[in-house]
């Protein structure tokens, strides 16, 4: 069937209009949707944003355990703690272990690269954080 035949047989497809369509409801897509709506609200206007996610819900296709720097979520929601964002476990220590068949040897702090220092970050479920972002969007 040609597109013309399809149109004459079934009529035009149903369509919904949005100002912005974002493909992928991961942390980046949801943060983009939230920030766009925040910017529109700051200007006293409203925009329609649609997030297309192939998973059954936000967070369903996300790897789970992660260490998260809260810088970006603080920019998006300065009051994320009061809003109940699921960042509950601050990092309390960093250990880099060299494992052997019989045990493990801890790398001394002075040898640890600075990017291995996670103080100020949180141990999170990225699935839970993404789901929470989806609830705020
Ligand atoms: C093994 C591993 C460990 C990691 N550990 C950490 C860590 O400890 N700390 C940290 O900060 N970061 C970590 N990361 C990185 C972190 O997971 C990513 O930076 C983050 O998930 C990127 O978010 P995103 O929204 O760009 O993409 P994604 O999280 O990949 O989200 C993309 C979304 O788009 C959806 N999608 C894709 N294609 C389509 C389509 N065609 N139509 C509709 N939906 C679609 C997917 O289902 C998914 O939900 C890790 C990554 C990996 C792989």
Please tag this protein with its features:
single chain, binds flavin-adenine dinucleotide, FAD/NAD(P)-binding domain, 3-stranded antiparallel β-sheet, two-stranded parallel ribbon, 18% strand, 137 residues
Structure description:
It is a single chain. The protein has 137 residues and is of the alpha+beta class. The chain has one domain: FAD/NAD(P)-binding domain. It is built from five helices and seven strands. The strands form three sheets. A three-stranded antiparallel sheet has the order 3-7-4. It has a two-stranded parallel ribbon with strand order 1-2. The longest helix is centred in the first third of the chain and has 16 residues. The model has no long low-confidence stretch (mean pLDDT 94). Flavin-adenine dinucleotide binds next to helix 2 and strand 3.
Topology:
Layout: H1 3-10, E1 20-23, H2 27-42, E2 49-52, E3 65-68, H3 71-76, H4 80-83, E4 89-90, E5 97-99, E6 104-106, E7 122-125, H5 126-136
The structure holds flavin-adenine dinucleotide.
Summarize the structure.
The chain is an alpha+beta fold and 137 residues long. It has helices spanning 3-10, 27-42, 71-76, 80-83, 126-136, and strands at residues 20-23, 49-52, 65-68, 89-90, 97-99, 104-106, 122-125. It starts with a helix and ends with a helix.
């Amino acid at each position: 069937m040609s597109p013309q035949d399809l149109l004459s047989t079934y009529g035009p497809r149903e369509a919904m209009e949005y100002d912005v369509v974002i493909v992928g409801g991961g942390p980046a897509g949801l943060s983009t949707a939230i920030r766009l709506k925040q910017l529109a609200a700051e200007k006293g206007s409203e925009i329609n944003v649609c997030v297309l996610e192939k998973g059954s819900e936000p967070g369903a296709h996300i790897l789970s355990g992660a260490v998260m720097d809260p810088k970006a979520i603080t920019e998006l929601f300065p009051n994320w703690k009061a809003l109940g964002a699921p960042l509950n476990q601050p990092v309390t220590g960093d250990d880099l272990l060299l494992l052997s068949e019989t045990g493990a040897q801890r790398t001394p702090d002075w040898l640890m690269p600075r990017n291995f220092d996670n103080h100020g970050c949180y141990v999170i479920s990225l699935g839970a954080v993404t789901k929470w972002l989806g609830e705020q969007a």
